[in-house]
Amino acid sequence: KRKYKIAVLPGDGIGPEIMREGYKILNVLQKNFCMNIETKEYDVGGIAIDRHGIALPESTLRGCENSHAILFGAVGGPKWENLSSYLQPERGALLPLRKYFNLFANLRPARLYSGIENLSPLRFEIVSRGFNVLCVRELIGGIYFNKRKGTKYVNSKKYSFDTEMYYQFEIERIAHIAFKLALSRKRNLVSIDKANVLETSVLWRETVNTVSLEYPEVNLSHLYVDNATMQLIKNPDKFDVILCSNLFGDIISDECAIITGSLGLLPSASLNEAGFGLYEPAGGSAPDIKGKNIANPIALILSIGMLFRYSFQLIEISNIIESVVYEVLRLGYRTKDILQKNNNLVSTSEMGDVISKFLSYRRIQ
Ligand code: NAD
Ligand code: IPM
Ligand code: MN
């Protein structure tokens, strides 16, 4: 029986709280689906700074290397915000992890199933048309990673700068991922840029157009990012796959999350060419709700679903996890972030219990 080794990195804030619910799901898969899953936990982020003096200890990196996939909670929080920025959890651990494993392709699926339209802050007439978007975000390039950044003085005037830069090959490889994913969906791809202002966006648009010649079945269009943010809330059903640079994808994916109902619902997969991946909620450590047992564990549980889909090719398990989550939502179980009247308010741990109970009733065909 194949052994599936998962490096578990709970991190900070609500990270450990939602990870507890993730373990419940993995336990059900272990017991009821007879899977051989081995988890090992490693410190990352603020907790790692506290315990090891560094946000991404060598032992954590080695642990990830010796696993088949990484399951990540969240990092960061007020406690570490006064450290030099490059030592902080985000820039000291999460970004280096993405870079180290070459996880250039970030997939963030946001969808609305019928029966749970009321989760969305959008008007019913808009969400009743439903939507199912997949945000494909370039994750290890652009303004996030370029070394030409800093803070300096000129004539005693202080200034800071970051540099947006893309190699054409970086745009090509993420574009191929987006086109391939579009082929398996509604064959509709919207590429987002700011080609009316930015050189990198001109190259982006040109390169995506060239790559598109290899995918004649996919309907490609381009939108400027400012317009795209509007179109997404006006007509979310017009979108299928969205392709963005690192920074635009960060912003657009939070928007995709909120139109489904909450950041606590949005999972993500970050993959390299070999299919190795890091799976994490798109949201952060949510210090405002930490320790209250009210965080929504669904983004993490759906990230586990993505892990089984993309790293282990266990599509059926992944489908079952997703359908159980949507069943539980349809039945009205809601954590506080998605609560509405007539719903059944549950805590973080109760949500994990309900989902694992429903999961344990399911079987592989
Ligand atoms: P955040 O995503 O942590 O929170 C934004 C809002 O969404 C908050 O109101 C929060 O309560 C809510 N939210 C997020 N996840 C939720 C969940 N699962 N259930 C219910 N509500 C949820 O963003 P922020 O407040 O801007 O950042 C807080 C910290 O997290 C910062 O240190 C930031 O750098 C870090 N961060 C980390 C990651 C990551 O580790 N991948 C991602 C984003 C932000
Ligand atoms: C995300 C987060 C990260 C990002 C931060 C915490 C570095 O916001 O995963 O969306 O900007 O990529
Ligand atoms: Mn973000």
Could you characterize what this model shows?
With 365 residues, this protein is α/β, with parallel strands linked by helices. It has two domains: 1-104 and 273-365, Isopropylmalate Dehydrogenase (3-Layer(aba) Sandwich); 121-260, Isopropylmalate Dehydrogenase (3-Layer(aba) Sandwich), CATH 3.40.718.10. It has helices spanning 15-32, 46-52, 58-65, 89-100, 124-127, 168-183, 199-212, 225-234, 246-260, 298-310, 315-330, 348-360, and strands at residues 3-11, 36-41, 69-74, 105-112, 131-138, 150-154, 157-161, 188-193, 219-224, 241-244, 267-271, 277-281, 333-334, 344-345. The strands form three sheets. The chain has a ten-stranded mixed sheet with strand order 2-1-3-12-11-4-5-10-8-9, sandwiched between helices. Strands 6-7 form a two-stranded antiparallel ribbon. Strand 8, helix 7 and strand 9 form a beta-alpha-beta unit. Helix 10 (298-310) runs antiparallel to helix 11 (315-330). The chain is globular and about 60 Å long. The mean pLDDT is 96.
